[in-house]
Amino acid sequence: MGGFLLPWCVLLGVTLPATAQVQNWSLAWVGLDAGEAIAALSTAVLLARADSRASVTAAAGGALLVADAWFDVCTSTPDYRVALAEAVFVELPLAAAAFWLAARLARGARSARSATGTPGWDGADGRGPDGVGRGRAGAGRGRAGVGRGRV
Questions:
Q1: Which secondary structure element, helix H or strand E, spans residue 96, and what is its range?
Q2: Going by C-beta distance under 8 Å and a sequence separation of 6 or more, which residues neighbour residue 73?
Q3: Global pTM exceeds 0.85
Q4: Cα separation of 28 and 61, whole Å?
Q5: What spatial distance separates the first Cα and last Cα of the chain, rounded to whole Å?
Q6: Which residues face 141 on adjacent strands?
Q7: What does the pLDDT read at residue 79?
Q8: Contacting residues for 17 by C-beta, under 8 A, at least 6 apart
Q9: Closest CA to 95 of 75, 67, 56
Q10: Alpha-carbon span 84 to 67, nearest angstrom
Q11: Span 109-146, pLDDT tens digits
């Protein structure tokens, strides 16, 4: 995929206009900030339940915060100092904290599985803790799309 995306980035850099009028500008920013809020709230709820899946929502929140910082700085007016200050002092530190939390939770979940002898998705045979595998894409899937079929 990276082999495709790098040339695509070059093509976009050469062909996209320097400015653009956008009809749904406020909707795009509200959607991004709502995604950040949902990720943060989901992480808090999952942490309160001691659910290791909080690592996923924390990582997603971190990625959204990095994207927010990037687009704030890139789309700011010629006086970009406020956007840069928000990125450096608010969004990027929060993203770093979210990534740290995600990594810590993932390590903790991995340690808990090894301490109890419960295997996780090991990647070798694709079988989960209950001996059920993920199999081929779409094969043996339950109604919710969870890998329930035998491999």
A1: helix 92-116
A2: 80, 83, 84, 87
A3: no
A4: 16
A5: 27
A6: 147
A7: 86
A8: none
A9: 67
A10: 13
A11: 766 666 555 555 444 444 444 444 544 444 444 444 44
